[in-house]
Design a protein that fits this description.
By secondary structure, the protein is mainly alpha-helical. About 70% of the residues lie in helices and about 5% in strands. One of its GO terms (molecular function) is G protein-coupled receptor activity.
């Protein structure tokens, strides 16, 4: 049951309105979202199984891809099933605890994926710019240390976001105009001061993902500089090919993120449904695209998948 804005009753659950301007037709969005979810989960699962079973793929580069696929699966399952339940069965209620748990998962695992792409860009930088030192720099120990750093960096920085939101008093309504428990969408329902919440959200997001974008940009600048110095066209082509798959993933990941930020900033000129839908797609399209791009462009992974599926050329 929705509470009126002036209700003094303590909120125990929220109602997700999802797309305010598309209530009559939003169920049709499940038509493209459902196959995309199945593709994301299926492709990432096949990729994980292929890497697990193919001994030639037991290398640091592919272990990083395992981390990326696991994060993609978690992000999909955190957001999309609830969105589809809203579209299919109008199941808008979400518990107080469930909402802040979803907020925590989104705020933690999305930056984890961002920094995983940074580590993968560094892996390609070493492979192209310092190929002789690659085996001694990019080791299994390096991947383990990188994974531990990814976890602790994001937990320490993003954990305060849901904690700050959960400590507020929610007594001015319980209808979230969003498909997910995004921090700002939730805290706007509070009858308390939310300036600290907005400030911390802004600083933490730009410190994490902003720095990730800068590091990734510089990595590819160094890679491009090294490739341009190669006198062999074949060597240059091979170097660019090894980085091409990752560059496509990074470009798509951050392009969609930048568009989402612009849509939120220009909210007065853009319908509210646009940034909400972009936010949902950002949790679905990269997970669906990532394993396909790697599977198509990386010969070793393609061979591993074909072997897994017992398909012979």
């Amino acid at each position: 049951m929705a509470l009126s804005p002036n209700s003094s009753t303590q909120v125990t659950e929220f109602l997700m309105l999802c797309l305010p301007g598309m209530q009559d037709v939003q169920h049709w969005l499940s038509v493209p979202l459902t196959p995309l979810l199945m593709l994301a989960l299926g492709a990432n699962t096949v990729l994980l199984l292929a890497i697990h079973q193919e001994a030639s793929l037991h290398e640091p580069m592919y272990y990083l891809l395992v981390i990326l696929s696991l994060l993609d699966i978690i992000l999909c399952l955190t957001v999309i099933p609830k969105v589809l339940l809203i579209f299919w069965f109008n199941m808008k209620p979400i518990s107080f605890t469930g909402c802040f748990l979803q907020m925590f998962m989104m705020n933690t695992f999305l930056p984890m994926e961002s920094f995983t792409l940074v580590i993968m860009a560094y892996d390609r930088y070493v492979a192209v710019c310092q190929p002789l030192h690659y085996p001694s720099i990019i080791t299994e120990q390096f991947v383990v240390k990188a994974a531990i750093f990814i976890i602790f960096r994001n937990l320490l920085v993003t954990l305060p976001t849901p904690i700050l939101a959960a400590r507020l008093d929610y007594c001015s309504g319980n209808v979230i105009e969003n498909c997910i428990c995004a921090n700002i969408s939730v805290v706007l329902l509070s009858c308390g001061d939310i300036h600290l919440n907005k400030l911390y959200q802004f600083v933490s997001v730009w410190c994490l993902m902003g720095s990730d974008l800068v590091l990734t940009f510089f990595s590819y600048c160094f890679i491009l500089k090294a490739v341009l110095k190669l006198h062999s066209v074949a060597a240059a082509t091979k170097a660019l090919s090894t980085c091409g798959s990752l560059f496509i993933l990074i470009l798509f990941f951050y392009t969609l993120l930048v568009v989402l930020v612009i849509a939120n900033v220009a909210r007065k000129q853009i319908p509210l449904d646009v940034p909400i839908l972009l936010n949902v797609l950002h949790h679905l399209i990269p997970p669906a695209i990532n394993p396909i791009v790697y599977g198509v462009r990386t010969q070793e992974i393609k061979h591993g998948i074909l072997k897994l599926l017992k398909v012979k050329k």
